[in-house]
Specification:
The complex is a heterodimer. Chain A is of the alpha+beta class. Chain A folds into two domains: about 1-30; about 35-135, OB fold (Dihydrolipoamide Acetyltransferase, E2P) (Beta Barrel), CATH 2.40.50. Chain A is about 30% helix and about 30% strand. Chain A is built from three helices and seven strands, in the order H-E-H-E-E-E-E-E-E-H. A five-stranded mixed beta barrel of chain A has the order 2-4-5-7-6. In chain A, a hairpin with a 4-residue loop joins strand 4 (about 70-75) and strand 5 (about 80-85). By secondary structure, chain B is an alpha+beta fold. Chain B folds into four domains: about 1-175, no CATH class; about 210-400, no CATH class; about 400-520 and about 630-645, no CATH class; about 525-625. In chain B, the strands form two sheets. In chain B, strands 3, 4, 5, 6, 7 and 8 form a six-stranded antiparallel sheet that branches. In chain B, strands 2-11-10-9 form a four-stranded antiparallel sheet, with no helix packed on it. In chain B, helix 4 runs antiparallel to helix 7, helix 8 (about 130-155) packs across helix 9 and helix 15 (about 400-420) packs parallel to helix 18 (about 460-485). The longest helix of chain B is centred in the N-terminal third of the chain and has 35 residues, at about 10-40. Chain B is flat and about 85 Å long. The termini of chain B are far apart. The interface of A and B includes residues 35, 124 and 129 of A. Strand 1 of chain A pairs antiparallel with strand 1 of chain B.
Chain lengths: ~140, ~675
C-alpha cells in the first residue's frame, strides 16, 4: 500500500470507530438517562406514565405502611405528594420525616413503583438532590452550606 | 489514652513541626521548578543539578509533615480540627492510621506525598537520560508539587487548630472503617498520581523538542508502574464497595469510581502506544498526547472528588473555595500542557507509517477503541454535571448508559487482543494469525455452549463468557506457540528463554479474560429478599441458607446485631456466615457488614435488614457464580504488568539492543 493509502486507511478507521462511539453515546443518552424530579416538579411536568425517574423528597410522617416485604409510603416536598410502592429491604436509615431518593417507574394512575430506595447516610447528611429540592421549596431546616 | 499520658507540649511540638515542614516543602518545590528550569534554558549544568537533591528533600519534608499528622491521629490530639472531625479515642489503631487519608485534608496530603515520592523516584532512577530532560521533568514535577502544596496550605490545612480542644472526636465515617480502605487509597493514588511522572516527561520532551524511541523507553516503566498500582487500587476499591455497601454490587458507575477508571483506560492505551513508539518510532505525537491525557484525567478525577461538585458515597468535600482552586490548577496544567503540545507537536518529526495489518496496526486499533471507551466514561461522568450547571435539569447516567455504549466497543476489543498478540511487527499475516488462534476459537465456542447449557440465559452473558475463554486461551496459546519455536515440539527451555515482557502481555491479557468472565457471570447471579424465620432454610441458587441465631454484640466503637447463617447444599453445611448491621454511636450512623462465603469461584453473599418481634429477620441473599474472577483477573493483570516491568530490556539504562533478535516473534 502506498504511504498515502496507509494514512487514509488509518484516518478512515479512526473516523469509523469514533463515529460508532459517538452514535452509540447519542443513542444511549436519549434512552438511558433518568431525570430527577421533586414531587412538585413532577406534578407540573406532565411526565408520561412508564417513564423511568428518580424522585427525591421527604418520607411523609405517618405514611409508611409495611406488609411483609411490600412497603408503601408517600414522598413529599411539603408542596406535592407522591405515593410510592416498593418491595424489598429498606435502607438502614429509612425513617419517616427523613430524606429519601427513589428510583423507579411512574405508573398509569400517577403512583410510583420504586425498584430502589436510597436514604441519607447519617443523621446529619441528606442526599444533595433532596437538600436542593427542599431549599428550592423554602422548607430547608438544616444548616445552610 | 495517650493524650493524657504523653506530654501535651511534645505533641504540640510535633504537630507544629509538621505544619512548618509543609511550608518548607512548598519553598523547595518552587526551587525545584525554577532553578533547574532556568538551568536547562541557560544550559548550565550546575543549576540543572539542583533538581535531584531538591526533589528528594521535598519528599523528606512532605513525609515529615504526613508523619506528624499521623502522629496527631494516633495520639488523638483533639486540638486539631482534622482529628476532631475524623477520629475518636476508641477507634481501633489501624483506623487511626487509615483515618488520616479518610478525609479531605489528609487525603490531599497523601496525594502530595505520593506526588513528591514520584519526583524523588525520577531523581533517583534517572541516570540514563540527558541532563536536560531530567531537569525539565523534575521542574514540571516541582511545579505540580508547588501548586498542590499551596492548595493544601491555603484551603485545606490539616493542621488547623481549635481552642479549647474538645474531649472527644466525631469519629471516622463508618463505611471508611474497614481494612479494605486502609490499602485502597494509597494504591489508587500511587496509580493516578504515578501518571504525573509520565506527564512531566511528556512536558519536558515538548519543552526540549526532542522525542525519540529513547524517550519511550524512559516512560514505559513509569507508565507500567502507575498502571499496575491503579489496576490494584481499582480492584481493591471495587471489592471494598462490594462488601461494605451491602447491595452486592461491585461497580456503580459513580463519578468517583469513574474518576479512577478514566486514567486507567488512558494509561492502558499509553502502555500499548509506548510499545509501538519504542519498537517502531511511530505514533510519537499520539503517545505524547496520551501521556498528557492520562494525568489530565487524574487531575480531572481529583477535581471531581475533592471539589465537592459531587456528593455520593465517596465524596466528602464541600467547600466552593477548594473547587475553584483545584479548577485553576486543572486549567493551568492541562491547558498549559495542551498549549505546549499544540505549539510543538507540528514541529516534531513524523514517525514511520506502517501497514494496517501488523502488530502496530492492531495496537493503533486498540488505542482507538480504548479512546472511545475513555471518551464514553468522560461524557457519562461530565454530561450530568454540565447539564445541571447549564439548564438546572437533573439527570442520572448510570449502568444502562455505560453498558449500551461500552459493551459494543469492549467486546470487539477483546476479540482483537489475541489477534494483535499473534501479528508480527511491520507486516503481519492475518490469515496465519487466525490460523494460530483456532484452538482459542474452538475453546471459546465450546465454553459458550457449555455455559449456555449450564446456566442458560441471558444471551449476552453466554457470548461474553465465550469471548472471555477465547481471550484466556488465545493469550496463553501465544506463549505455547512461541515455546514451540519454528515448528518443532514445545520446549520448556524455549519457554523459559522467552522475554519476561512476553509473559507479561499474556498474563495481562489472560487476566482481562478472567475479569470479563466474572463480569459475564453477573448475569447468572441469583438474588432473593426474604423475611427469614429462625431455623428454616431458603433456596438461593444451588444452596440453602438458614438463620441459626440473631444476637447483639458490642464492638470497640459500635454496637451491632449479627446473624449466624448456615449455607447448606444437599443437607451438608458448607459454610457459616455472619452478616451484621452495625451502629456507630459517635456519628449516629448505621452500616451493613455483609456475610460472604467463597464457594469455588463463586460467593454466597448475605446482608441483613431489620429484625422483627416474631424472630424473623429481613435479609438479602445472593449467589454470585464466578464473581471472584473479577478481582482475581485484575490481580493477574497487575502481575502481568509487574512481569513486564521486571523485564531487563525495559529497565532504564539498559542498552536498547541488549536482547537477542532471536527472541522476537518470527516474522
Amino acid at each position: 500500500m502506498t504511504r498515502k493509502g496507509k494514512r487514509l486507511t488509518l484516518i478512515a478507521g479512526a473516523m469509523a470507530v469514533l463515529g460508532l462511539a459517538a452514535g452509540l453515546m447519542l443513542f444511549a443518552l436519549r434512552d438511558n438517562i433518568v431525570f430527577f424530579y421533586t414531587p412538585s416538579e413532577l406534578a407540573k411536568k406532565e411526565v408520561a406514565s412508564g417513564a423511568r425517574l428518580r424522585i427525591g423528597g421527604l418520607v411523609k410522617e405517618g405514611s409508611v405502611v409495611k406488609n411483609g416485604q411490600d412497603v408503601s409510603f408517600t414522598v413529599t416536598d411539603k408542596t406535592s405528594d407522591l405515593a410510592v410502592s416498593y418491595t424489598g429491604l429498606l435502607p438502614d436509615l429509612f425513617r419517616e420525616g427523613q430524606g429519601v431518593v427513589v428510583d423507579g417507574v411512574l405508573q398509569a394512575g400517577g403512583a410510583f413503583r420504586a425498584d430502589s430506595v436510597l436514604a441519607k447516610h447519617d443523621e446529619r447528611y441528606m442526599p444533595r438532590d433532596v437538600a436542593d429540592a427542599l431549599k428550592k421549596q423554602g422548607v430547608w431546616q438544616g444548616e445552610t452550606k | 489514652m495517650c493524650a493524657l499520658s504523653c506530654n501535651p507540649r511534645n505533641v504540640r511540638m510535633i504537630v507544629e513541626t509538621g505544619h512548618y515542614a509543609l511550608v518548607l516543602a512548598l519553598a523547595l518545590a518552587v526551587a525545584q521548578f525554577a532553578i533547574p528550569f532556568i538551568g536547562a534554558r541557560l544550559n548550565d549544568a550546575g543549576l540543572m543539578r539542583v533538581a535531584r537533591p531538591t526533589a528528594i528533600t521535598q519528599l523528606l519534608f512532605v513525609a515529615l509533615s504526613y508523619g506528624a499528622l499521623t502522629y496527631a491521629h494516633v495520639v488523638s490530639d483533639f486540638s486539631l480540627v482534622n482529628v476532631i472531625e475524623n477520629s475518636h479515642s476508641l477507634k481501633p489503631f489501624i483506623y487511626k492510621i487509615s483515618g488520616v487519608w479518610g478525609n479531605h485534608e489528609g487525603s490531599m496530603l497523601l496525594w502530595v506525598l505520593v506526588l513528591s515520592l514520584c519526583g524523588a523516584l525520577i531523581a533517583i532512577f534517572s541516570n540514563a537520560m540527558s541532563d536536560r530532560l531530567r531537569a525539565d521533568a523534575l521542574a514540571v514535577q516541582g511545579l505540580l508539587g508547588a501548586a498542590f502544596l499551596l492548595f493544601i496550605l491555603q484551603t485545606s490545612n490539616p493542621f488547623a487548630r481549635v481552642a479549647p480542644a474538645p474531649w472527644e472526636g466525631r469519629d471516622l465515617n463508618p463505611i471508611l472503617q474497614d481494612p479494605g480502605l486502609a490499602i485502597h487509597p494509597p494504591l489508587l493514588y500511587l496509580g493516578y498520581v504515578g501518571f504525573s511522572i509520565v506527564f512531566s516527561f511528556a512536558a519536558a520532551a515538548l519543552i526540549g523538542g526532542r522525542i525519540d524511541a529513547a524517550w519511550a523507553r524512559v516512560i514505559r516503566p513509569w507508565t507500567l508502574f502507575a498502571w499496575i498500582a491503579l489496576t490494584l487500587g481499582i480492584a481493591m476499591g471495587s471489592y471494598w464497595a462490594y462488601y461494605t455497601l451491602g447491595w452486592g454490587g461491585f461497580w456503580f458507575w459513580d463519578p468517583v469510581e469513574n474518576a479512577s477508571l478514566m486514567p486507567w483506560i488512558a494509561g492502558t492505551a499509553l502502555v500499548h502506544s509506548a510499545a509501538v513508539m519504542e519498537k517502531r518510532e511511530a505514533l510519537k505525537v499520539w503517545t505524547i498526547f496520551l501521556a498528557i491525557l492520562a494525568f489530565s484525567l487524574s487531575l480531572l478525577g481529583t477535581f471531581l472528588v475533592r471539589s465537592g461538585v459531587l456528593t455520593s458515597v465517596h465524596a466528602f468535600a464541600s467547600d466552593p473555595d477548594r473547587g475553584v482552586f483545584i479548577l485553576a490548577i486543572l486549567v493551568f496544567f492541562i491547558g498549559g500542557a495542551l498549549a505546549l503540545f499544540a505549539l510543538r507537536a507540528s514541529a516534531l518529526p513524523i514517525g514511520g507509517l506502517f501497514s494496517p495489518i501488523s502488530r502496530e496496526g492492531a495496537l493503533v486499533l486498540n488505542n482507538l477503541l480504548l479512546s472511545a471507551c475513555c471518551a464514553t466514561v468522560v461524557v457519562g461522568t461530565l454530561y450530568p454535571l454540565a447539564l445541571e450547571a447549564i439548564t438546572g435539569e437533573k439527570i442520572s447516567v448510570g449502568a444502562p448508559f455505560f453498558n449500551t455504549v461500552l459493551i459494543p466497543i469492549a467486546l470487539p476489543l477483546a476479540l482483537l487482543m489475541p489477534i494483535g498478540q499473534m501479528l508480527s511487527w511491520k507486516r503481519g499475516d492475518l490469515a496465519a494469525a487466525l490460523q494460530r488462534l483456532r484452538v482459542a476459537f474452538v475453546a471459546g465456542v465450546l465454553a459458550a455452549a457449555a455455559f449456555g447449557a449450564w446456566y442458560g440465559t441471558p444471551f449476552l452473558s453466554i457470548v461474553t463468557a465465550g469471548i472471555a475463554i477465547y481471550l484466556v486461551v488465545g493469550a496463553l496459546s501465544d506463549l505455547a506457540l512461541r515455546a514451540r519455536g519454528g515448528s518443532g515440539r514445545p520446549s520448556l527451555k524455549r519457554l523459559a528463554g522467552l522475554p519476561l515482557s512476553a509473559f507479561g502481555t499474556s498474563f495481562a491479557h489472560a487476566g482481562m479474560g478472567l475479569t470479563l468472565l466474572g463480569l459475564a457471570a453477573t448475569g447468572w447471579g441469583v438474588e432473593t429478599i426474604v423475611a427469614m424465620k429462625p431455623l428454616s432454610f431458603y433456596d438461593v441458587g444451588p444452596f440453602q441458607i438458614g438463620v441459626e441465631s440473631v444476637s447483639p454484640r458490642q464492638g470497640p466503637n459500635y454496637s451491632e446485631v449479627y446473624a449466624v447463617m448456615a449455607v447448606r447444599k444437599d443437607g451438608a453445611t458448607l459454610a457459616t456466615i455472619e452478616p451484621a448491621k452495625r451502629f456507630y454511636q459517635a456519628r449516629r450512623m448505621a452500616r451493613s457488614e455483609a456475610g460472604i462465603a467463597t464457594l469455588g469461584l463463586g460467593q454466597v453473599y448475605a446482608a441483613i435488614g431489620e429484625s422483627h418481634e416474631d424472630g424473623t429477620i429481613d435479609a438479602r441473599l445472593y449467589w454470585k457464580p464466578l464473581v471472584t474472577l473479577i478481582w482475581i483477573g485484575a490481580l493477574i493483570m497487575a502481575f502481568g504488568g509487574a512481569l513486564s516491568l521486571a523485564d531487563r530490556r525495559l529497565r532504564i539504562g539498559v542498552a536498547r539492543r541488549a536482547a537477542a533478535p532471536a527472541l522476537e516473534p518470527a516474522e
